[in-house]
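Title: Comparing notes on inverse folding

I've been comparing how different people in this forum approach sequence design from structure. To keep things fair, I'm posting one structure and asking everyone to reply with a full sequence. Here's the target:
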């Protein structure tokens, strides 16, 4: 068993396993690995692979940038992990417009899943907050709410129409209700 594990026998085994083309005139001892057993690896067996030296091409015009604009997640500019304000309680609800043809006959192919909903309603509890203290910013996929005591950065589950949303503050319940229209591509469920 000792003769099989020696370095020279492994080199001879590697030579036997090489293609017949390389075994002709162009094969010489410089292609053989060193006799040391420590440098002999399973990758040493077989034809010698030529390493391709390529250059890394930077796609962006500014070579100092680390990420392209597509790689940065939407809403990360609002993220402030060092802000000591606490996050308020919130609920995300989905709303869909249905008629009798949907409920009783199932004619529009809508189901109770969120894939068939037209609106997203976010209810945010803001105790001891005035309506004038609320700052609300809505992007296509991010809701950013700031008050003197609370802060909420919410990544929305669907893309929304940020220009045509509704918000109302119910002072009796101390709740802000934000209704946003979901903007999704038409598919076999959402074709109307």
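Reply #1:
Here's my take.
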């Amino acid at each position: 068993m000792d003769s099989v594990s020696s370095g020279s026998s492994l080199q001879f085994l590697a030579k036997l396993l090489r293609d017949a083309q390389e075994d002709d005139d162009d094969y010489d001892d410089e292609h053989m690995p060193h006799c040391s057993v420590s440098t002999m690896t399973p990758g040493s067996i077989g034809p010698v692979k030529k390493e391709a030296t390529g250059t890394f091409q930077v796609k962006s015009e500014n070579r100092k940038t680390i990420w392209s604009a597509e790689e940065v997640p939407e809403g990360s500019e609002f993220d402030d992990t060092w802000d000591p304000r606490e996050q308020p309680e919130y609920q995300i609800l989905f709303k869909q417009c249905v008629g009798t043809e949907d409920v009783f006959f199932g004619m529009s192919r809508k189901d109770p899943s969120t894939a068939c909903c037209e609106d997203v309603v976010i209810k945010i509890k803001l105790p001891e907050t005035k309506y004038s203290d609320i700052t609300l910013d809505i992007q296509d996929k991010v809701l950013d709410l700031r008050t003197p005591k609370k802060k909420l950065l919410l990544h929305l589950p669907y893309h929304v129409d940020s220009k045509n949303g509704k918000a109302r503050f119910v002072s009796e319940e101390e709740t802000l209700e934000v209704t946003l229209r979901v903007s999704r591509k038409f598919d076999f469920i959402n074709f109307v």
